[in-house]
Input
Amino acid sequence: MNQENMVQANHNARTFGADSVRAMIFLLVFGVVVGILFGFGLLRAILNPIRALTGVSKELEEGNLNQVVPVASKDEFGELAASFNKLAGRLRAYRQVTTDQILQARQMTEITFSAFPDPIIALALDGKVTFSNPAAEKLLQSLDSDHSLPLAIQEEVSEVLKGGPDFLPTTFDKAVPVRIGDHEAFLLARTIGVRNEQGHLFGVAVVLQDVTRFRLLDEVKTNLVSTVSHELKTPLTSVRMGLYLLLEEKIGSLNPKQTELLLAARDDSERLLRMINDLLDLARFESGQVGQRFEIISPQALLKSIIPDLRQLVEANNSRLETEVSKGLPDVAIDVRRISHVFSNFVSNAARHAKHGEPVILSVKQHGSWIRFSVLDHGPGIPNEFQPRVFDRFFRIPGSTKSTGIGLGLAIAREIVVAHGGEIGLKSAPGEGSEFYFDLPGSFNGGTA
Output
């Protein structure tokens, strides 16, 4: 009986243990399933609002500000969604205000440009016209073409669109002839690159000015100066001849006072003759009637041919001339007679303004792909406000007592250098002297002009 009871108890214990194990396994599996389901639910509850915010953020990034994040709870996510919606609302309001301001500014700009009497045309990077005021539309319609800009102006626009510098002509020789109806007109185009704050080019603005009348007046002025100069030169030659005959005393002797008066008259007549010759030279340059004979010559040979005359100019002003020539310089193609005039003007100016005992330095050196000829003095220098105008016609520095001309020497020098395909310039600082220079190309196929 005891044995049977023990067997029965053992059987009952095993059965209870098996049931307990099965119950534990069931409960464990059930707990794991419930935990996974709870985790997924919690994850969705956390990620769904974040995904919604991410999607709305991307839409805002694309510029679509009409986005609203649903507020599904009053917890932290709900507060974040509400704040985000407020931010989007403020952005919409700001964009509306900014758009209104941009539209107003655009309208004001168009109204302002429309009121301009000069034609104004704006082009995009692809060359298409994005804006034109009424004056430009009227001009394009009147041109004998397919309502497009003249070829010369199109080339200037292309250069600026390719990243070239703005085209801002200051003389009438850049005017483009066009046919408007039954008469010829001249248009001066100013091509300006339109850039953003970072300096990136996104378009070009072209301002066209009808300079027909101004060009005609300029031609009349040039012809008048040339005619008057020619007419003055003939009687002046007779006056000079009479003065020289009197001074040679071939028709009678002179007392000292008469000789003094005749010498003063001779000097003034020579000065007047130089002025007339300068006016004639300038008129010829402006009319394009200057004949130039280019020849290939080395800088050393050029200086050797002109140095004797330049030394006389310097010594006449109680100074001395020094030269500095770099070795191995390439030849240049120049009209020696014309370039000598530039050197004479530079050196005579430098000698008049050089300090007592200080030399005038004439130098030739390589400057990039150019050959630079320069004349340096250690005089008082030129004030900064007058430096941009020193090469203008008839300009003289106010208060200067050492300049004897009428302000044409440097203007003629500029015309000569430009006719050689070169550039002219000035470096100066008050109290530190001045350096006038001109650059000529080192390789130039010259000819006879």
Summary: The chain has four domains: 1-115, 116-210, 216-287, 295-441.
